[in-house]
């Protein structure tokens, strides 16, 4: 039996393919390469779409009503009243679905019609991608997408190498090497040999594992093992390889890319789901009412109606012999009649209106110029029209990293060589550090006569005494001035000189701030002197750089004076002390180097001077960068280009190139560089390649008689391998490392070791022996590498900036302030992900701890999670009581919690835009409520002296979680997911690194399922497609990684920063408008429909309608549709500017506060009350009524016409009160609908000849009608107005307060400071290595083997437990005298808390702020000048800049 089942098992678990054999492959019925993401075809569209639409409960409900209306015995309304709206809804939805599907068809067609060169009958022919089949041999050319998952057969490179870019799969843009079997290299590009290739491939079934492939090739009687290194996956791009050939293994939906794409899910909003629930409730309510009326009708007919059969005869189908039976049958029929009459409680027009509103809102998103990205000429686009209001309820954002948060562009920013820091620019006259940003900005230069001759200049001039003529606009680089010492010193004469030895020590981390185009951030933070002790006539901060030392062939920039720009109080006061001229600042000129890169920017002239003056240490530094790497060089169009395994490595080699150390070429055993125009060739003896365990790489080189080992890697790894006697150098370099890491830069340490011939030969023999060992080879090699990578001399460190997209830190901070939790799911390695987390302010050193889950087994992960949970419990038990004070503030006072906008940065930093320069770790965040704030945001609590009581809130809390991909597998298991969620839900930020595309989707699904939260996923590559499809809202960024993410998304934007506006403006508006629309819609329909219920008490429950049947039919279509549509499209409570400035406005959407069951019940009760008043007052007036002329006016038609008219007038009055934002459209629709009612009523009754002809006309001639209408409308409007005024006066919302502020035109410092600000970059207590290479090893093995050549001759871990190595300080008695306005006193009890951290990664000798630092700094209290918070030259009360984070509200 076993012999029979074995082949069957093999067939189920394996896949057999024979190259160039269609008949053999056809028997297995493998999928072809055709891709289909569309849902319908021309023939299936109508039935499938109708089936899908009738799955919606509302549509099915109206279909049933239509069927009932076709029965004459029970219908008092014509079927047209339901048929026309239902057909309209189905048609509108079908058109929208057809449009969406046509877009998917076009996308599929574009992909399927791509061209691929395929071998057919021995000839290479062009075929469409859709025509490629399993077993075909295809050719790929350089820069071409791989059409299907392909087994590599041969390439244009020696040894069968090729290079691919996998950005579409894992988001990485660095190159990866693939190598075919040595046995198939001989096939080359000979078509006859490739056509005769008949190898049989036995491999695994299609799966979604990107990094795994197991298979066997049977060819020429031999079996060859196949692995992932020999497979090219669909979606990859061939790079640096002229051509390659391969045989298709997986095609179409079987490819790993499509296996990871996930299934397209039907997405609906929370409002839709609530509406479905409400509709069920309304139907039950309707059934109950109908049953009650049916019973009432049966009783009435049995006791009273039977006696009036002469006047009200029963239908012929009613049995007349036995009265109870006849009455029962009549009651049963009336049940269905009332079901038809009262169906307008949930009219079909509700769904028509919802679809129209969403459709128009989508165009408002598409047309928003604020989300237009000029660089790529890309607008934001709503690719779906059904999810707009869901954008206003997002609770979790899941973001990709590469290409989404970052540009994936590395730049060489700073460095330290032999204990001396380079990259900073210092002005000796004031001692300020001038930090240069890469941003260019528009700047007004008032000195028209001294116009700078270059666009790359910086001006920092004070306001001119007299107003000059309108100044010209120039482009400038922004400069930030800090009181720090660096390696470039500017003398009083403006010349750049080398700094003294005492200036080579780095100052503490920089002050908090953010860079923003258009602003210069000038902050004085010199240790040991107070901000307010500076002389008013002090020297101005100087910009410095290349402009001070004229570049070769250039001239010194002319000075610029004047300046007509405004500063906020603190910066403006400092600038008022500056002199009237500044040196222009521009980057160092590298034009003397023929190989320099034009876009390379460096502002510290002294480093280039050191290199050109043959300074020994700088030459060693750049030689190491030019030689210690695995970069490949090639010449393209006469230009030298580099291809690197990681962007970090490319940036370092490019930096060496610009400074005159140009890497030219390499062979398997040599490296050639060009140093200052002279070629130097080194013999390459060994490459000790990088991997995630070693965290370093080394090369051993020989030139002449000298032999040297160059090593670069993570700083902690290098420091452990240095020889003794370098304590001073190590300490100074460590200070620089701390400073660089504190600025969010990615750091690498460099070291060298001089070797002797004898020592190397002995080591080499042992290394070869270990390399040939069959057991524990890796361990033995690592031990050998450890031996030679020791006793090294420290050369220096590099600092690289991974450029974020513009505005990312600000956007993340504001989204977090809005209450949204942000998770980053990336395929990058842990170090890279954490570095970016700090750079974009997702991680800050304000966090109590950062937990890292990196266990390899379930037991290890469970242990780590258990330890983290204990740490959180301990912290919550012993943390400072700041939050208790904040909670008491919210519970004991009348202040709305939404009124408090919590921020994490100083007030004077509020208008910055880009990542700031970090301060030392703050001890505590302080929120001070000033008098102006309380005037706007609630009732103030006055202290004894009349000032405002200060509330101190500790925001230095919270945790972050970093999870590795292999650990995430265990975290997502059923037995562990609850523990994982318990930890993750208590963290402010979560980063998942080394995750696969499918894992991203699983994380999103977990949060959706377990937390019942509204999720948004944003990404830009094909690796993000599954995550985008899984989330409630998918946002694609049209970036550098193709359009896969965009095509699968619900919304597309060009930059991550636009997500802020998409959510906080359009999302919030859409949710606000939809909720307001629904509340009013249910109100007006219950007010309209329940009139029949009250009338039934007077008509024997006979299902007689109050209104004209035509009025019932067109009430929602013509009379009330346009005003409510205008409300849903144009309504806004606050402007877009205020929506962005006050992120807390977004909070109601998170809690579904604007439309829920409570709000629905309120609308129903309001409608019921309106209908009662609306019916009873006219009924009481017109019952037994007689006109002045003696005519009886108590007829049914007159009553119906009067009630209908008052209903329309009341609707107009109510929506006028509902509308907060009036536009021309609102005026036209609201007042036009009122006029339209009278026009249509006249037309229907007089032109067409309706049954109610003359009823309204006669009623309007009588004064009774007008008095009745006035009394009724006043009775309905008065309670609404009273309730609105009550809410505004006693319980105003944040939007109410903002509108009140706008009306009163309050412009104060307090109202400005309460607005949101981006979190400032904090000084790091840990140095994070920037040695962030790809997921696999480097090219070292391939280089030394010659296979890659064209020519042949944790410890990075955060602590498991509690701790931040941060000293928290509450400064006592923060006093600051106001100006003439008010006086604010802050009484804060002193508190000193130290959290010890056991993390070995932390630097033990790093200094932290303490009370002594505050005292010595002279800034423990407010400014000595006694400035208040009001004027432009005044300072607000603030704590020490480096230790307290003060926000003045």
Contiguous helical run count: 43
Main β-sheet, in a few words?
Answer: 9 strands, mixed
What structural class do you assign from the helix and strand content? alpha+beta
**Percent of residues in β-strands:** 15-25%
Which radius of gyration do the C-alpha atoms yield?
Answer: 38 Å
| Sequence of strands across the biggest β-sheet | 14-41-40-39-15-34-38-37-35
Low-pLDDT sequence parts:
1-10, 438-583, 881-956, 1309-1327, 1332-1336, 1351-1449
Spatial separation of the terminal alpha carbons: 82 Å
Tell me how many strands there are.
Answer: 46
Share in helix: 25-40%
Tertiary shape: elongated
Overall pLDDT score? 74
Quick overview:
By secondary structure, the chain is an alpha+beta fold.
What is the fold's blueprint, element by element?
Elements: H1 2-13, E1 14-18, H2 22-26, H3 45-53, H4 57-69, H5 80-112, E2 115-120, E3 123-128, E4 137-141, E5 149-155, E6 161-165, H6 167-170, E7 175-179, H7 191-196, E8 200-204, E9 215-219, E10 222-226, E11 231-232, E12 237-239, E13 243-250, H8 256-259, H9 270-303, H10 323-341, H11 348-366, E14 381-382, E15 396-399, E16 406-417, E17 420-422, E18 425-427, E19 432-444, E20 473-482, E21 488-490, E22 496-498, E23 560-561, H12 569-575, E24 581-582, H13 605-612, H14 616-627, E25 632-636, E26 639-643, H15 647-658, E27 661-667, E28 670-675, E29 678-688, E30 696-703, E31 706-713, H16 715-719, H17 727-742, E32 746-755, H18 757-771, H19 777-788, E33 793-804, H20 808-817, E34 821-825, H21 830-839, E35 849-853, H22 858-878, H23 882-892, E36 924-928, H24 931-937, E37 959-964, H25 965-971, H26 977-984, E38 989-993, H27 997-1011, E39 1015-1019, H28 1025-1030, E40 1033-1037, H29 1044-1047, E41 1051-1053, H30 1058-1096, H31 1109-1119, H32 1121-1130, H33 1136-1141, H34 1147-1150, H35 1157-1182, H36 1196-1218, H37 1224-1248, H38 1255-1260, H39 1263-1290, ...
Parallel strand pairs: 15-34, 15-39, 18-21, 34-38, 35-37, 36-46, 37-38, 39-40, 40-41
Antiparallel strand pairs: 1-8, 2-3, 2-4, 4-13, 5-11, 5-13, 6-7, 6-12, 8-9, 9-10, 14-41, 16-17, 16-33, 18-19, 19-20, 21-22, 23-24, 25-26, 27-28, 28-29, 29-30, 30-31, 31-32, 32-33, 42-45, 43-44
């Amino acid at each position: 039996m076993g012999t029979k089942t074995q082949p069957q098992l093999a067939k189920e678990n394996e896949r057999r393919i024979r190259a160039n054999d269609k008949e053999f492959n056809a028997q297995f019925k493998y999928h072809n390469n055709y891709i289909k993401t569309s849902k319908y075809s021309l023939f299936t569209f109508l039935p499938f779409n109708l089936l899908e639409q009738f799955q919606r409960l509302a549509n099915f409900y109206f279909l049933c009503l239509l069927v009932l209306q076709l029965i004459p015995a029970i219908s008092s309304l014509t079927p047209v009243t339901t048929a026309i709206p239902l057909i309209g809804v189905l048609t509108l939805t079908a058109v929208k679905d057809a449009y969406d599907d046509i877009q998917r068809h076009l996308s599929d067609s574009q992909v399927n019609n791509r061209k691929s060169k395929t071998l057919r009958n021995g000839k290479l022919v062009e075929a469409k991608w859709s025509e490629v089949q399993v077993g075909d041999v295809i050719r790929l050319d350089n820069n071409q997408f791989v059409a299907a998952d392909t087994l590599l057969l041969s390439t244009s490179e020696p040894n069968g190498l090729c290079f691919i870019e996998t950005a579409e799969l894992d988001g990485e843009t660095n190159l990866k090497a693939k190598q075919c079997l040595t046995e198939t290299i001989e096939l080359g590009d000979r078509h006859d040999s490739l056509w005769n290739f008949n190898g049989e491939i036995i491999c695994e079934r299609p799966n979604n594992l990107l990094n795994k492939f197991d298979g066997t090739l049977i060819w020429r009687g031999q079996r060859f093992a196949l692995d992932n290194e020999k497979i090219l996956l669909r979606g990859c791009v061939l790079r640096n390889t002229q051509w390659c050939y391969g045989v298709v293994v997986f095609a179409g939906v079987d490819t790993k890319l499509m296996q990871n794409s996930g299934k397209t899910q039907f997405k609906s909003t929370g409002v839709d789901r609530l509406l479905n629930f409400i509709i069920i409730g309304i139907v039950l309510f309707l059934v109950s009412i109908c049953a009650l009326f049916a019973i009432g009708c049966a009783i009435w007919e049995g006791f009273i109606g039977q006696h009036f059969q002469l006047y009200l005869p029963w239908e012929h189908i009613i049995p007349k012999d036995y009265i109870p039976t006849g009455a029962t049958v009549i009651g049963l029929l009336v049940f269905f009649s009332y079901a038809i009459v009262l169906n307008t409680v949930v009219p079909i027009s509700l769904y028509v209106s919802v679809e129209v509103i969403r459709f128009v809102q989508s165009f408002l998103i598409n047309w928003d110029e604020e989300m237009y990205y000029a660089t790529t000429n890309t607008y934001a686009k709503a690719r779906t029209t059904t999810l707009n209001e869901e954008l206003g309820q997002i609770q979790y954002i899941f973001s990709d990293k590469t290409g989404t948060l970052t540009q994936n562009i590395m730049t060489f920013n700073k460095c330290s060589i032999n204990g001396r820091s380079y990259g900073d620019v210092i002005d000796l006259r004031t001692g300020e550090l001038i930090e240069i940003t890469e941003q260019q900005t528009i700047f007004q230069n008032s000195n028209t006569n001294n116009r700078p001759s270059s666009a790359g200049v910086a001006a920092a001039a004070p306001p001119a005494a007299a107003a000059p003529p309108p100044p010209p606009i120039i482009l400038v680089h922004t400069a930030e001035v800090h009181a720090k010492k660096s390696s470039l010193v500017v003398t009083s004469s403006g010349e750049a000189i080398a700094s003294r030895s005492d200036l080579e020590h780095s100052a503490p981390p920089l002050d908090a701030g953010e860079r923003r185009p258009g602003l210069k951030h000038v902050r004085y933070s010199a240790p040991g002197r107070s901000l307010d002790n500076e002389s008013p006539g002090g020297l101005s901060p100087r910009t410095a750089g290349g402009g001070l030392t004229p570049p070769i062939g250039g001239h010194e920039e002319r000075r610029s004076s004047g300046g007509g720009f405004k500063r906020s109080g603190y910066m403006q006061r400092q600038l008022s002390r500056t002199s009237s001229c500044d040196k222009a600042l521009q980057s160092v000129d590298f034009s003397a180097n023929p190989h320099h890169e034009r876009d390379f920017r460096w502002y510290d002239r002294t480093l280039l001077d050191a290199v050109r003056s043959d300074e020994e240490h700088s030459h060693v530094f750049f030689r190491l960068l030019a030689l210690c790497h695995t970069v490949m060089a090639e010449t393209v169009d006469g230009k030298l280009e580099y291809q690197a395994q990681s962007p970090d490595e490319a940036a370092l080699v490019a930096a060496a190139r610009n400074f005159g150390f140009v890497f030219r070429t390499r062979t398997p055993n040599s490296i050639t560089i060009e140093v200052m125009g002279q070629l130097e060739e080194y013999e390459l003896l060994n490459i000790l390649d990088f991997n995630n365990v070693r965290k370093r790489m080394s090369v051993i080189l020989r030139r002449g008689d000298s032999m040297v080992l160059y090593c670069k890697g993570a700083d902690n790894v290098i420091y452990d391998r240095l020889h003794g006697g370098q304590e001073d150098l190590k300490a100074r370099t460590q200070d620089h490392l701390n400073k660089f890491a504190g600025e969010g830069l990615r750091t690498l340490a460099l070291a060298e070791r001089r070797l002797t011939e004898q020592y190397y030969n002995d080591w080499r023999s042992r290394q070869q022996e270990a390399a040939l060992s069959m057991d524990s080879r890796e361990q033995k090699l690592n031990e050998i590498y450890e031996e030679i990578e020791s006793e090294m001399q420290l050369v220096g460190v590099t600092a690289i900036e991974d450029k974020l997209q513009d505005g990312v830190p600000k956007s993340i901070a504001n989204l977090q302030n809005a209450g949204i939790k942000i998770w980053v799911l990336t395929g990058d390695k842990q170090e890279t992900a954490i570095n970016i987390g700090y750079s974009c302010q997702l991680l800050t050193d304000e966090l109590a701890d950062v937990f890292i889950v990196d266990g390899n087994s379930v037991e290890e992960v469970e242990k780590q999670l258990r330890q983290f949970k204990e740490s959180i419990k301990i912290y919550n038990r012993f943390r400072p009581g700041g939050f208790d004070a904040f909670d008491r503030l919210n519970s004991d006072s009348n202040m709305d919690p939404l009124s408090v906008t919590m921020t994490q940065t100083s007030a004077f930093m509020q208008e910055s835009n880009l990542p700031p320069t970090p301060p030392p770790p703050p001890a505590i965040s302080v929120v001070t409520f000033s008098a102006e704030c309380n005037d706007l945001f609630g009732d103030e609590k006055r202290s004894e002296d009349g000032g405002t009581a200060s509330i101190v809130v500790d925001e230095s809390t919270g945790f972050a979680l970093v999870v590795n991909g292999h650990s995430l597998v265990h975290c997502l298991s059923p037995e562990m997911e609850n523990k994982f969620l318990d930890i993750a839900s208590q963290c402010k930020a979560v980063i998942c690194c080394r995750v696969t595309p499918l894992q991203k989707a699983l994380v999103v699904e977990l949060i959706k399922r377990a937390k019942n939260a509204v999720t948004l996923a944003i990404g830009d590559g094909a690796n993000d497609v599954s995550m985008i499809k899984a989330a409630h809202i998918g946002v694609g960024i049209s970036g550098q990684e193709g359009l896969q993410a965009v095509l699968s998304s619900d919304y597309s934007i060009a930059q991550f920063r636009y997500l802020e506006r998409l959510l906080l403006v359009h999302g919030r508006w859409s949710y606000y408008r939809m909720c307001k629309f629904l509340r009013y819609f249910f109100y007006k329909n219950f007010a309209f429909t329940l009139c029949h219920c009250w009338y039934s008490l007077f008509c024997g429950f006979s299902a007689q309608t109050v209104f004209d049947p035509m009025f019932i039919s067109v009430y929602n279509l013509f009379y009330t549709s346009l005003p409510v549509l205008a409300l849903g499209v144009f309504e806004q409570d606050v402007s877009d500017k205020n929506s962005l400035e006050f992120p807390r406005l977004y909070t109601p959407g998170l809690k579904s506060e604007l439309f829920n069951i409570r709000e629905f019940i309120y609308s129903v009760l309001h409608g019921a009350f309106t209908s009662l008043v609306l019916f009873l007052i006219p009924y009481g007036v017109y019952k037994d009524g007689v006109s002045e002329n003696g005519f009886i006016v108590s007829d049914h038609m007159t009553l119906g016409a009067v009630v209908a008219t008052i209903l329309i007038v009341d609707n107009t009055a109510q929506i006028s009160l509902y509308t907060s934002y009036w536009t021309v459209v609102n005026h036209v629709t609201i007042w036009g609908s009122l006029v339209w009612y009278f026009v249509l009523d006249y037309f229907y009754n007089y032109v067409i000849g309706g049954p109610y002809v003359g009823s309204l006309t006669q009623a309007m001639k009588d004064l009774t009608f007008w008095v009745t209408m006035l009394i009724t409308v006043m009775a309905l409007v008065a309670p609404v107005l009273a309730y609105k005024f009550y809410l505004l006066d006693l319980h105003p919302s944040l939007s109410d307060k903002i509108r009140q502020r706008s009306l009163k035109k309050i412009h104060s410092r307090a109202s400005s400071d309460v607005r949101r600000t981006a979190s400032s970059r904090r000084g790091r207590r840990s140095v994070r290595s920037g040695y962030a290479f790809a997921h696999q090893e480097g090219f070292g093995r391939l280089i030394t083997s010659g296979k890659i050549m064209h020519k042949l001759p944790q410890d990075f871990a955060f602590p498991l437990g509690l701790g931040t190595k941060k000293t928290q300080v509450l400064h006592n008695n923060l006093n600051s005298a106001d100006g003439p306005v008010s006086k604010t006193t802050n009484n804060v009890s002193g508190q000193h808390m130290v959290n010890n951290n056991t993390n070995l990664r932390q630097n033990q000798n790093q200094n932290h702020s303490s009370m002594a630092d505050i005292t010595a700094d002279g800034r423990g209290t407010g400014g000595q000048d006694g400035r208040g918070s009001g004027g432009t030259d005044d300072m607000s009360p603030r704590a020490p800049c480096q230790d307290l984070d003060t926000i003045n509200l």
